[in-house]
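Entry type: protein chain
Record version: 2
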Amino acid sequence: MANVINGEKIMLLRVVLIALGAGVAGSFVGGLIGVLMRKPSKTYISLMLSFAAGAMLGVALFELLPESFEFGGIWAALGGMLLGVGFIFSLDLLNKKGEQEVEKSVVDTQIAAGDKRKLKRIGFIIFFAMALHSIPEGLAIGAGEYLGIGLLLGIILFLHFVPEGLAIAVPLRASGMKTWKALLLATAAGFPAVIGAIIGYYIGMVEVLLAYCLSFAAGAMLYVVLSEMLPTAYGYSNRHKLITAVTLSGVLLIVVFSAAL
């Protein structure tokens, strides 16, 4: 009995560490790029986004949804996926306007006082949206640990959290906020992933709830990939063939990994 309890504690600790590595470390790296680089390369961002998007597509389609169907049947797979899409869509309504304003504002070298206030407001809107946004990604890590893919998801989601940290840090720094404060807020947005991972871990102990958790995470991933990551990747660079190839390489990585299990 003691061995079982110790094993569960070790597994939970592993889930927490993976979520910290993905959410907090990823957001920190993105925030650091945002405060140190005046204008990060859009080609670099687009390639990073496209690879992460391909990997997330592969995980959602070849790992999470099939496993959800196996544990809970078709209704759990479809129902959870729709809930995931709906949750991220509601956050997207809050976040979209802020991202568009950032895109227009950060290119200016001289920023007026009114614009600085607007940029600070935008930065905080994106911060709160991204913080909530990271919860279902943490859920995927926690539930995915039962499938043996928690670490893989952590690595993939790390790549996803980098541009999220960047999106927070750039407008805050451009508003005149001190570097360390902008970096701290960008990093803090990744912490809710740990909460999501712990919830996902405990939900995973019940098969039906695990099914919904997996499909919820899959729906959230699919929505983020198709409505945000890929459109941004293609919009940031005109090297569309390369972006497509990088995206497919991300999908292929997961297919190969799934076949090897």
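Comment: Confidence is low (pLDDT under 50) at residues 105-111.
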